[in-house]
Design brief:
Layout lengths: L7 H19 L4 H4 L10 H24 L9 H11 L4 H21 L8 E3 L5 E3 L3 H15 L11 H15 L9 E5 L4 E4 L13 E5 L1 H8 L22
Parallel strand pairs: 3-5
Antiparallel strand pairs: 1-2, 3-4
Helix pairs in contact: 1-5, 1-6, 3-4, 3-5, 3-6, 7-8
Length: about 250
Amino acid sequence: MTLTPPDFPHDAAAVREATDRLLVSLGKLDDEAIGEPSLLPDWSRGHVLAHLARNADALVNLLTWARTGVPAPMYTSAEARDGDIARDADRSLAAHLEDLRESAARFDAAVDALPAERRAYEVEMRNGVVERADRLPLRRLAEVELHHVDLGVGYSVAELPPAFLGSELDFLATVKFVRHPKLPALELRTDDGRTWHTGGGGTTTGGRAPSVVVTGSPAALVGWLTGRSDGTELDAQGSALPAVPPL
């Protein structure tokens, strides 16, 4: 399969809906829970929330770049990014909620301000990754949905919306892991018959046959490829599942 073209208005609306779900989950917590470990190594829930707020602002920088044509980095530096997360992690629940709402509003405003004729403009994300502006809402959606899972508040990969699972699986297979030197050639199959080729063999015609065929639900495949599950729900036809490189 090839990467599905983005639907900018739909994707922007999906981000708002995902953010609302996140805020509902957070409303059930308290200050003590914010300081407890998340499902990510070495990060509390507060670290995850601080990252989400700053990621929204980082994507605002890129949307502004696309709108104006004036280059603006996501973060001033890797050190500044990590420092902001560490600084804000230990705040109260109320402070996190306010920051998340305000940064989400800034993201929404930047999305709304991007003219249709600038949506194909390419910007540079962290680590030199080039992305089209019209795919930035999908990038934000992945951050909100997957980190909602990482908070360990009862929101699981199995509860992720089908539309998100489809777009994320599409991205992981055709962009993130395609021809990845640390992943063998894979054929991914969903229960409804969709297939992707990814990993070392790539998706080009004439690429070598996949060394492993992995079948399962979109949720199980996304969970495995993003490190949110161990792949026990997947069928690799008797082969061992390979280790997936970190995102």
